[in-house]
Amino acid sequence: MSQQARLDALALAGDLPGVLLDARRLAASAPGLHGRRRSGQGEAFWQYRDHRAEDGARLVDWRRSARGERYFVREREREAAQTAWFWLDSEPGFAWSADPARTTKLRRAQTIALALATLLSRGGERVGAYGVAPRAGQRAVDRLAHDFIAPAPKAPPPKRSCILFFSDFYAPAEDWRARLAACADAGAHGALIMIADPAEEDFPFRGRTLFLEPGGRRETLLGRAETAREEYAERLEAQRRAIRALGNEYGFPALLHRTDHSAAPTLALLISLISERFA
Fold this sequence. Notes:
- By secondary structure, the protein is of the alpha/beta class.
- It has 2 domains: 227 residues, Rossmann fold (3-Layer(aba) Sandwich); 32 residues, no CATH class.
- It contains 8 helices and 9 strands.
- The protein has a 5-stranded parallel β-sheet with strand order 4-3-5-6-9. A two-stranded antiparallel sheet has the order 1-2.
């Protein structure tokens, strides 16, 4: 690990209590997940449902059915926990904000991911950083936060899993095609959470402006930055269309979130999506 990477890791570790506090506040204000509340193999009673022809007489709950004129089947609650995996972009540009007073894209991604993990963990599911063993229980979210400090290791997608990718998705679309195709081949599904800084969305720059590559050495000087706004917007939209198309193709719907907006609506959308995936 380079000296700069080591310093970045120490900074993230020192910020963990604040990130966890933000995540818990966000989770507290969000609608909860029902966890394992779905039918399947298990011992605990879940619900009664109407008898269907394919059920046969063996599944009829005769005691409940005797109370009326309809036949009922007693369903049990599935007890096998499912796992949600979280992948956070480790590129230097993702740990960036145009305004020092505003959160970085990485910090917002961590907050949303940990809030969702908190709700999932309370519902009895397992959570894990991509490439790291998943965990369940009271300490699962704290351990997940520490796992976020290190870059996501290169690992094959977990089979038949739910994977949530947090990134600005500025890497070439073909790179994402390869990654999502591997996930689909493994039977995985999930979501793409596109985190954007408002300066990246609005391109508010005017006049002579020097653009520096985060974590790199490249720089671009524009004499009149406003003249590049239209071309920039077109290229950004083309990249977003490509990413959304890939997500639709491989079963990973894309959500866009700006760091100057509340995280609550994005978390609510993810809760709805995960509930459908885990049903």
